[in-house]
Design a protein that fits this description.
Family: Belongs to the binding-protein-dependent transport system permease family.
Membrane topology: Multi-pass membrane protein
Number of domains: 1
Number of helices: 13
Keywords: Cell inner membrane, Cell membrane, Membrane, Transmembrane, Transmembrane helix, Transport
Protein name: sn-glycerol-3-phosphate transport system permease protein UgpA
Largest sheet: 2 strands, antiparallel
Strand content: under 5%
Subcellular location: Cell inner membrane; Cell membrane
Structural class: mainly alpha
CATH topology: MetI-like fold
Order of helices and strands: HEEHHHHHHHHHHHH
């Protein structure tokens, strides 16, 4: 028999949701409104004087070749982080789900990276890939690859992609593992009895049943690559060499806090917010159609 919670007091439900509403208003709607307001202003570096300029900040942005190039950099970065991060996490989850002896040890090791802060992740990978002192860079030199993320833009992009994937892989792994463990083993055993091999069983049974989890993680990873990777880039490449790794969120910081152009920085924040909201809506409208919830 289904049980439903009933509140005897009329004000109690509102009291329970008030903290979440306040947090949302304070940390999302208020900053978003401030960004919208500041995006139509030109301000000095200290924010003491301002001039209303309508949409001049946005026009200047889309006439800036460096800003347009950062779109390409962000798209390439986010696609690689989402695709390779989800793929590797799924492979690890599949192998971890099959392990019987010492399974908890493997799972614990795979979860640990999520507890590390993004700045520490950036510094860790910066040392590992350092052209002169890095262990991985030294191993690459031994096989004939001259690694130098300080001068080579492609190497710098690979560095931040690997660091971002390593930071997020534990989060993806947990959800994939939970999804795998929720799949009835009887379905897989029945397919095996019918003669389906491991690969066919995975793509015809396991992966379709994981589609809700995969869709959720796709949305999360796109948002993660757009916003939460700022600290990794700041700790490793600072958007360089040149502007090869300057994604949109880092350019907001670079122009606003280092360049002192608060109006342009606010306009970039608005554009970034619109892009992420649009991508999320498109994913729910088109990608979710292929998700099987039963």
């Amino acid at each position: 028999m289904e049980k439903r919670a009933r509140f005897k007091s009329a004000w109690l439900p509102y009291a329970l949701v008030t903290p979440q509403i306040l947090v949302t208003l304070l940390f999302f709607f208020w900053p978003a409104a401030q960004a919208l307001y500041q995006s139509v202003l030109i301000q000095d570096s200290f924010g003491t004087t301002s001039q209303f300029v309508w949409f001049d900040n946005f026009r200047d942005l889309f006439n800036d070749a460096n800003y347009l190039e950062s779109f390409k950099t962000t798209a390439m970065f986010s696609i690689m982080v989402a695709f390779f991060g989800l793929s590797l996490s799924l492979i690890l989850a599949v192998f971890a789900d099959r392990i019987i002896k010492g399974a908890s040890v493997y799972k614990t090791f795979l979860i640990w990276p999520y507890a590390v802060s993004p700045v520490v992740v950036g510094v860790l990978w910066l040392f590992l890939m350092n052209p002169t002192l890095g262990v991985i860079a030294h191993a690459l030199r031994n096989i004939g690859v001259e690694w130098n993320n300080l001068l080579n833009g492609t190497h710098a992009m690979i560095l931040i992609v690997m660091a971002a994937i390593w930071k997020q892989i534990s989060y993806n792994f947990l959800f994939f593992l939970a999804g795998l463990q929720a799949i009835p083993k009887s379905l897989i055993e029945a397919a095996a009895i019918d003669g389906a091999g491991p690969v066919r069983r995975f793509f015809t049974i396991v992966f379709p049943l994981l589609s809700p989890t995969t869709f959720f993680l796709l949305v999360i990873n796109i948002v993660y690559s757009f916003f939460d990777t700022f600290a990794i880039i700041e700790a490793t490449t600072h958007g360089g060499p040149g502007k090869e790794t300057e994604i949109l969120v880092y350019k907001v910081f670079q122009d606003g806090f280092r360049g002192g152009d608060l109006g342009s920085s606010a306009a970039q924040s608005v554009v970034l917010m619109v892009i992420v909201i649009t991508l999320t809506v498109l994913q729910f409208k088109y990608v979710e159609r292929k998700v099987q919830y039963s």
